Amino acid sequence: MAQPVTRHDAWQAGDSYDSYMGRWSRQIAPRFLDWLDIADGLDWLEIGCGTGALSGAILAQCRPKSLIAIDPSEGFLAKARASVPDRRVVFEVGDAQALALDAASRDVVVSALVLNFVPDKQKMLAEMKRVTRVGGVVGFYVWDYPSGGVAFMRAFWAAAAALDPAAADLAENRRFPYCTPDGLSALAADAGLTAITCTPIDAATVFKDFDDLWHPFTLGAGPAPGYCVSLASDARQRLKQALHDSLPRRDDGSIHLTARAWAVKALVA
After folding, report:
1. Where in the chain does DSSP place strands (E)?
2. Which domain holds residue 197?
3. Of 185, 150, 126, residue with least CA distance to 257
4. CATH code assigned at 222
5. Would 5 be classed as within a structural domain?
6. pLDDT of the residue at 2
7. Is 30 part of a structural domain of the chain?
8. Which contacts of 94-99 are long-range, i.e. CB under 8 A and separated by 24 or more positions?
9. Cα Rg, the chain, nearest whole Å
10. Is residue 179 a part of any domain in this protein?
């Protein structure tokens, strides 16, 4: 079933996204690749490369023969090209639901933190399978939204919903209930993938102080920041204070939270 995009899903400014989620994706990416355990010298495709967190990790860890990385956002691609200057990678505008690649042309097709934002998840997975060679690997990961696996995001929406009950319906746990091991494995199986496995990948999200946590929410890149910037200044200030009061701090003012992603690996038969 297609997943509607809300009016707060803003994905253009690469620097803003890096401040909000990219820095945490960079922690997950190398662990995901370690788990995939792919041989060197293969042809890779990355769908929804964003600002290049996973792209850079692929090039550093997996010694690919080639990497094509696509994203619909020119803003994100500009950031990725600047961050990952490597001749083996080509960054291109592309649609996850209609890949401009030949069938069976890639050995490994991966995606990071993208599947839940694609309107038709089944089309995306079917396209991933189509362009992967027989015996090749399809892998992806998404945040553990249903269990509140991204603690700072959960805290934001809890504070927002306490002030504006309608905000609860915008939170990722309501919008993406299938981001569980069973739900993700079922999506992969429905796409015709085989030998499906799923594992959790955890990361520490440490903020030096409250401003380090709050500022990315004011930049508009992503559902929660999009909601934040849509508020009138007085409502945004009330939300800031409510979030501030809800978070634990250490003696030095730092805020130590955690984030969990679910990673899926499957084969093309």
Report:
1. 43-47, 66-71, 89-93, 106-112, 132-143, 194-207, 255-267
2. 14-267
3. 150
4. 3.40.50.150
5. no
6. 35
7. yes
8. 94/47, 94/70, 95/70, 96/47, 96/48, 96/70, 96/72, 96/123, 96/124, 96/127, 97/123, 97/124, 97/127, 98/123, 98/127, 99/45, 99/47, 99/70, 99/127, 99/128, 99/130, 99/131
9. 18
10. yes
Q: Look at residues 30, 3, 26, 27 and name the one whose alpha carbon lies nearest to residue 97.
A: 3
* Residue 98, CA distances (Å) to 119, 127, 159, 170, 193 in order: 12, 7, 38, 27, 18
Inter-CA distances, 229 with 29, 234, 245, Å: 29, 11, 20
To the question of pTM greater than 0.85 for the whole model, the response is yes
Contact present, 246 and 191 (Cβ < 8 Å): no
Pick out the chain residues at pLDDT < 50. 1-5, 7-13
Supply the pLDDT for residue 23. 87
Cβ pair 224, 155 in contact under 8 A: no
